[in-house]
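Before anything else, study the sequence and fold tokens given here and see whether the fold suits the sequence. Record follows:
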Amino acid sequence: MTLPLNPAMAATFPPPVMEARRWLQGVSFPPERPLLNVSQAAPVEPPPLGLREALAEAALHDPQAHLYGPVLGMQALREEVAAQWSAAYGGRIEAAQVAITQGCNQAFCAIMATLAGAGDEVILPTPWYFNHKMWLDMQGVVTVPLPTGPTLLPDAERAEALITPRTRAIVLVTPNNPGGVEYPAATLAAFRDVARAHGLALIVDETYRDFDSRSGAPHDLFADPDWDGVLVHLYSFSKAYRLTGHRVGAVVASAARLAEVEKFLDTVAICPSQLGQIGALWGMRNLGQWVAGERDEILSRRTAMTGGFSALAGWKLLGCGAYFSYVEHPFAEASDRLAQRLVREAGVLMLPGTMFQPEGSEDGRRQLRIAFANVDTAGIAELFSRLALVTG
């Protein structure tokens, strides 16, 4: 007997990173050419020692670290986010406008659950972050693609032309996953104005904001005194403090919206990880200089990526920033087949553009995402040596 399966779940594609890892099965990598895994954008090293010691201290001596906490997160962490974000963006954010979540993916799911139901529409620029598309598919929400073209920069006027009575939100990710591009402040302001004019939510995911190459605030959305009537901001502590396994993210939105988010969070997880929140708070208070050093290292790797592609015949660099390069390959075969061939012939694992574009997209067939943040400059040089040997 076969048990029932939710049709929306059945229609949702498999997790791309897990799918790509299956391509490694049965493939051996000789010692002189080990696997270069540039498929996933997540730190692979543990947090710095001071943060780990803070986690250990809490685990051993703080009884509250092992109990349920507030559904919307620790008050001290919410206050710290509000204070630091207010200073960084030149706006006014209250602790009541901050919620802590089990990672940024949960932040997206929680806020979207309050905005859109089956049959509603959400605009996503393409190439899109696949987990955003997966959640919308699971909920029966219609994803409306917004092509970004060769610049990978979305256009607010093109987005406005896609709005219908069923549209509920526009989602932007900057620095972008998968494209790497950093959206100009004027672009974000234009989208804010379109969203406000049509009564929509503008969701801005800044998971990679700590690795933005620009100095100062990347936008002034929070300087708008009525920002919480249109803007929803998402963030992840995982990348800045290497807390991926602890799952800590944040939503910044109106207090009224977070009251609805609380329903979702209480039902799904009850509360965020207490230890993860303790680690995030300690990191915010103590690791500013350390994070700046991490940013410098990522920027040096970005420079190595842009230089490498300038010398790699046939390949075209479309975007590069934060953790990612997004590229166009020169071969006739589709990117999903090429990505599997790269595993076998070059010992390189990366994700094809077909995982970031609508089904049947010609752009997706020509594109690949390279998550370079976990590869040092020597590894990046080796990556280009291997790609140079690949032929059609």
